[in-house]
Amino acid sequence: MNRRLLIGLLLIWSLGPLFWQVYTSLCSDQALTQPFASIDHRWTLIHYRNVLTANPPFWRYLVNSLFVGLSSTLLCLVLALPAAYALNRIPRQLSIMSRLALVGAALFPYVLLFLGLLEFARGLNLGNHLLALSFPYAALSQPLAILLLNNAFNDLPPELEDAAKLEGLTLFQRFRWILIPLISPATASTAILVFLFSWNEYPIALTWISDSNKLTLPVAMARIAGSSIYSVPYGAYAAATVLGSIPFVLLVLIFQKPIVSGLTSGAVKG
């Protein structure tokens, strides 16, 4: 009984803010200011309509964030997977020093690199381009991604790769057809973390993108929250939050299957 109560409290603690945002997005402005008053038209979809029909429309921000998140994640994994494998094969002392350097890089506040990254984007003429966000997001996510994937490679028994060598497989074939499928749970988890960072990043996106048609979701939501100088548009902001959560929830559900299958693929059936 105590265990069920604890699980219930954890669910309320985790899902409570989301339910409150959904409730706020469906309430009229009058119902939000007078929550216990008797109001005939308490429920409304006007906030969703205002957000979706704004200029630019809200779906454009979702597309921009999806493009930045997916491109950053793909670029990060393409670079991090071979780097993590190489880190697992170098001499032990060099590997330890490299891991310490990666930990330091992962903990380093990326805001201090802001001006350097900005000059890099200017040098490549990437101003007001979504790729100007994808490159730094992928680079900033590299240290953590390499560390996570390296731990996954460490957990693999070396006999698997030795057997593949005896079968005549090249390094690329072993990496592509044997090693990467075996670490699919770690790859999926790393992809979610990289995507989440790219999806929620605000300072770089705020400074580097000035075109209103190319804004990402966090910047657009900040503009919605500050769209009125007399009041806070709680309903519109809550509607934007709910709409912005849908793609990420769907992405987690999509990644759930490879994670579960990867964790259970090695189970011994009696």
Would you give an account of this structure?
This protein is mainly alpha-helical. The chain has one domain (18-264): Orthogonal Bundle (MetI-like fold). It has 13 helices and no strands. The chain has helices at 2-26, 29-33, 46-52, 58-89, 92-107, 114-123, 131-154, 158-166, 171-182, 184-200, 203-208, 217-225, 234-264. The radius of gyration is 23 Å and the shape is globular. 26% of the residues are buried.
Q: Determine the N-to-C terminus distance.
A: 32 Å
SSE order, as H and E? HHHHHHHHHHHHH
Q: How many structurally independent domains?
A: 1
Instruction: Output the structural class.
Output: mainly alpha
CATH superfamily: MetI-like
Instruction: Quote the CATH topology.
Output: MetI-like fold
Radius of gyration, rounded? Answer: 23 Å
The count of strands amounts to 0
Mean pLDDT: 84
Binned strand content:
under 5%
> What's the CATH first level?
Mainly Alpha
**Residue ranges: pLDDT <50 for 5 or more in a row?**
264-270
Q: Tell me the overall shape.
A: globular
Q: What is the percent of helical residues?
A: over 70%
Number of separate helices = 13
Biggest sheet features: none
Identify the notable features of this structure and list them briefly.
single chain; 270 residues; mainly alpha; MetI-like fold; 13 helices; globular
Element layout with pairings:
Elements: H1 2-26, H2 29-33, H3 46-52, H4 58-89, H5 92-107, H6 114-123, H7 131-154, H8 158-166, H9 171-182, H10 184-200, H11 203-208, H12 217-225, H13 234-264
Helix pairs in contact: 1-13, 3-13, 4-7, 4-10, 5-7, 7-10, 8-9, 10-13, 12-13
